[in-house]
Specification:
It is found in: Nucleus. This protein is about 35% helix and about 5% strand. It is mainly alpha-helical. It has a single domain, classed as Double Stranded RNA Binding Domain, CATH 3.30.160.60. Strands 1-2 form a two-stranded antiparallel sheet. A hairpin with a 6-residue loop joins strand 1 (about 30) and strand 2 (about 35).
Length: about 60
């Protein structure tokens, strides 16, 4: 791969790698800080870093994350 140097045995593997690793645009932007993500779900998760919200609770120790 010209972009990262990773080697592939077959051309289709290189093509797939380039399409999924290097060509996915970071189209989804955090409205708070402007950081961009490839997936909208990643923005939703990232937004929690701004709010301090910790919606997940461990059932064993009650720690939140």
């Amino acid at each position: 791969c010209p972009a990262c140097g990773k080697a592939f045995a077959k051309r289709p593997q290189l093509t797939r790698h380039q399409r999924f690793v290097h060509r996915l645009e970071r189209r989804h932007e955090c409205p708070t800080c402007g950081k961009r993500f490839k997936k909208k779900s990643h923005v939703r998760n990232h937004l929690l870093t701004h709010t301090g919200e910790r919606p997940h609770r461990c059932k064993d120790c009650a720690k939140t994350f």
